[in-house]
Design brief:
alpha/beta, eleven-stranded mixed β-sheet, six-stranded mixed β-sheet
């Protein structure tokens, strides 16, 4: 692709070299002969400092936000916006060949996007998925590095989806990705908002900044689906009075779609999805109050995308669930659940949803991430104290922080309340300890790792798959 083709509809100043582009990147380490290097300014680094080295490495052009006096240099107003547009141009603007759906919010994004894809497929639509656990291109799975990929990787994935014949692409939109303009220039047929609770304040600083990052998605959406039960959701709906929207609720009839006659069980939820002039029975195979909200969000988003509401309700019953999200790893004399809950709100939701069905003891294994918002730590402990009978406190991606110091930071409220609890820095040892505590009718909830099969300690990623550890333990006990 020529540079002139690559820069189509991208505003720039300067003179483009007469050359072919082999790739576009903002990472100087990925520059190769023929690359276009885009200088982006981050919180910890400034791409302008690497522009000269990029040219030495073979870049045919550097894109800057300020004049550097380099050869083969063009200037743009915003490097991140340019990166997003150039990436789409390089791959032939694949986003324009797909109907895009994005889901944002603190909790529920992975479940909702996965279920939306399953509902669309039940309606006969070919669909791609981009999210935290993995990327799906029709029936093929690819590993995921970020919840929302960088602009170049996102465009490459969309190109593969378009080539595979996908009609829709459903994706999670993280607040960091929105703030970093990875989705700039994309147009979504629908955007959905799940909820907003405290998270990522280490990045955004305040809840207001966090909310505004999430809200920015809806500037790019033709229609929106909003959780009416969430105060930020109601505020968001009011910010776009003229935009087509549908609201959902599990308690308020003021919403467009409301869940009635909710029945909770250990293996899922049942309810009636009620809208003006219609009632549809739903059976959804994921337990918990928040599963009602997630199911409603997925169904109403599918309806906004053109799926018949009755079909959407039926499709929820055949949902295959989501790895690491309220996932039942074993159910017999006792039950073992795995969930990605890694915030106070997330732990509160999974434990409160399980508590009513526990005939024995509720055991919660959890840890707090290192180098992340430390304000979440007491909230997680408080949720465990409120609902669990026994706590097992361990590590969850301590990264560069001392894992023992993190545990000491979380431990005081557990000690003060007098509940039975155990600590083990090594997560595998903690898991084995928790499994060893199980008695008849107990429920063990493994919080934090969910789909992840690793631990990050001192900058090193170590393999740790709780699914496999539990499966091996069950085989040793002749339970599988």
């Amino acid at each position: 692709m020529t540079l002139q083709q690559l820069f189509q509809d991208v505003k720039y100043s300067g003179t483009l070299p007469q050359a072919e582009a082999a790739a576009v990147t903002q990472d100087s380490r990925r520059v190769k002969p023929g690359s276009v290097f885009v200088c982006t300014v981050g919180r910890r680094s400034d791409g302008h400092e690497y522009a000269a080295k990029a040219l030495e490495a073979g870049a045919v052009c550097v894109v800057t936000q300020r004049p550097l006096g380099l050869e083969r240099e063009v200037q743009v107003e915003d490097g991140r916006k340019a990166l997003a547009l150039l990436s789409q141009n390089f791959f032939g603007r694949p986003a324009e060949k797909l109907k895009l759906i994005a889901v944002t919010g603190t909790n529920g994004k992975t479940t909702v996007t996965t279920v939306i894809k399953q509902v669309l497929e039940a309606a006969g639509r070919r669909c791609g998925l981009i999210g935290t656990i993995h990327t799906e291109i029709d029936g093929m799975e690819l590993p995921a590095k970020y919840t929302t990929p960088e602009a170049w990787d996102l465009a490459a994935l969309m190109a593969r989806m378009a080539e595979a014949g996908c009609e829709y692409a459903v994706m999670e939109a993280s607040s960091q990705a929105l703030d970093q303009l990875r989705l700039y220039g994309l147009r979504f047929v629908c955007g959905a908002f799940t909820n907003l609770t405290q998270d990522h304040l280490d990045y955004h600083g305040t809840m207001e900044a966090y909310f505004m990052a999430k809200a920015s998605l809806f500037d790019q959406c033709d229609a929106m689906v909003v959780n009416y039960d969430d105060e930020y959701g109601r505020r968001l709906a009011g910010m776009y009075p003229e935009k087509p929207k549908l609201t959902f609720s599990d308690r308020d009839d003021m919403a467009d779609y409301t869940a009635h006659n909710i029945q909770y069980a250990a293996d899922g939820v049942k309810f009636a999805m009620v809208a003006k002039g219609s009632i549809h029975r739903v059976a959804f195979p994921m337990p918990g109050e928040y599963s009602v909200s997630n199911a409603m969000c997925a169904a109403v988003t599918a309806v906004t995308a053109g799926v018949d509401a009755a079909l959407a309700a039926r499709a929820l019953a055949s949902s295959r669930g989501v790895r690491g999200r309220s996932e039942v790893l074993y159910s017999g004399d006792f039950t073992i659940l795995c969930d990605y809950a890694h915030t106070g709100d997330g732990v509160e939701k999974i434990l409160s949803s399980v508590r009513p069905f526990v005939k024995g003891r509720l055991i919660a294994l959890f840890g707090c991430a290192g180098e992340r918002d430390a304000k979440k730590r007491p909230q997680m402990a408080e949720a465990v104290i409120k609902h669990a009978d026994i706590a097992v406190l361990t590590s969850d991606n301590p990264r560069g922080e001392d894992p023992e110091a993190i545990i000491r930071d979380v431990e005081p409220p557990l000690r003060a309340c007098g509940m039975e609890y155990y600590t083990a820095v090594d997560r595998r040892r903690a898991l084995e300890l928790a499994l060893g505590l199980l008695e008849k009718n107990d429920v063990l909830v493994l919080c934090g790792k969910g789909h992840e099969d690793y631990q990050v300690i001192d900058g090193v990623t170590l393999y740790l798959d709780e699914h496999r550890i539990v499966a091996d333990w069950l085989r040793e006990k002749h339970l599988r």
